[in-house]
């Protein structure tokens, strides 16, 4: 399998961590969808990463779809419950974490996208996205409480998704002081950061 993606993308990092935790072999192809010469659209018509290319050439895209597929490939380290309320809980945690990232990406693009003039940038839009980030962090903290992991006592996709969201915020928005505001999230992040799967996928220095 070949995974196409950027090492700075939190969605790509989520997939890479799942592959590491599941002990799956793959080749990582570094590719930025924003580069002028990007070839991502050759595999994903939406031009987005991550994109998983199978041995037969067919592609699977969207990080949530990819990680769900990957979890079925090996019984090692089951990350998503098969059915029922437990499964819905883990997928909701993933949606919450991805939603925080989505808001952050929209805010960042409003500021940094080179094809938008300064006069076209909307501070109201940026503020709205930051409001979503704050609400998401509050919900994460409340849901985690004093539990060792988001969905109980074992590592699951919930924790991987949240860890990627927190790590990306620290990487792209260091001014958001979530560590001070939510010490339980800081403890979870620090614990996850020690796992080889997180260490090996740490985004490069900006």
Please give a structural write-up.
There is one protein chain. Strands 2-1-3-4 form a 4-stranded mixed beta sheet. The chain is globular and about 55 Å long. By secondary structure, the chain is an alpha+beta fold. It has 8 helices and 4 strands; from the N terminus they run βαβββααααααα. Helix 1 runs antiparallel to helix 5, helix 3 packs antiparallel against helix 4 and helix 5 crosses helix 7. A hairpin with a 5-residue loop joins strand 3 and strand 4. The longest helix is centred in the middle third of the chain and has 29 residues. The protein has 2 domains: 70 residues, Glutaredoxin (3-Layer(aba) Sandwich); 112 residues, Glutathione S-transferase Yfyf (Class Pi), Chain A, domain 2.
Number of domains: 2
Total helices: the number is 8
State the CATH class of the largest domain: Mainly Alpha
Helix content: 40-55%
Largest sheet: 4 strands, mixed
Write out the strand line-up for the largest beta sheet, numbering strands in chain order.
2-1-3-4
The span between the termini is 28 Å
Assembly category:
single chain
The parts where pLDDT drops under 50 for at least 5 residues are: none
What is the β-strand count?
A: 4
Q: Which descriptors apply to this entry?
A:
206 residues; alpha+beta; Glutaredoxin; Glutathione S-transferase Yfyf (Class Pi), Chain A, domain 2; 2 domains; four-stranded mixed sheet; 8 helices; globular; maleylacetoacetate isomerase activity; Glutathione_S-Trfase_N; transferase; Glutathione_S-Trfase; Glutathione S-transferase N-terminal domain-containing protein
């Amino acid at each position: 399998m070949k995974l196409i993606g950027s090492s700075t993308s939190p969605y790509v990092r989520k997939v890479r961590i799942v592959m590491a935790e599941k002990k799956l072999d793959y080749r990582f192809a570094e590719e930025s969808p924003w580069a002028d010469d990007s070839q991502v659209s050759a595999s994903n018509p939406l031009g987005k990463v991550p994109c998983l290319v199978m041995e037969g050439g067919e592609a699977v895209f969207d990080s949530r779809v990819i990680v769900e597929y990957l979890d079925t490939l090996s019984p090692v380290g089951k990350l998503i419950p098969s059915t029922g309320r437990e499964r819905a809980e883990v997928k909701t945690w993933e949606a919450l974490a991805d939603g925080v990232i989505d808001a952050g990406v929209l805010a960042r693009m409003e500021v940094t996208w080179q094809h938008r003039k300064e006069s076209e940038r909307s501070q109201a839009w940026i503020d709205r996205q930051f409001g979503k980030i704050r609400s998401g962090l509050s919900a994460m903290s409340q849901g985690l409480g004093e539990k060792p992991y988001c969905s109980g006592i074992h590592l699951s996709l919930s924790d991987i998704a949240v860890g990627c969201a927190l790590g990306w915020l620290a990487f792209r928005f260091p001014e958001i002081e979530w560590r001070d505001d939510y010490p339980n999230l800081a403890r979870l992040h620090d614990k996850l950061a020690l796992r080889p799967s997180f260490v090996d996928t740490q985004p490069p220095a900006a």
